[in-house]
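Fig. S4 source data, part A: sequence.
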Amino acid sequence: MSARARYSDAQAAAIAVDLAETADAHDSLGDRLAALGYTVPARAWHDSAARLRRYAAAAREGGEHLTAMVHGR
């Protein structure tokens, strides 16, 4: 049996919601940092938000898609 996590569709759906909310928070922080002139850390937070949204999109496609993305397939 593989030790790798496998996500059900229900788990993936819940994870997608959480990831999207977290991505919004990362973008908000990036926006606030950019407004203060901290462009490098702002970019890092925006990049993080983009990565989270890619995972959220995979999670919305279902457990198989999220599992594949998490494991680099």
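Fig. S4 source data, part B ends here. Residues 9-35 form the longest helix (27 residues).
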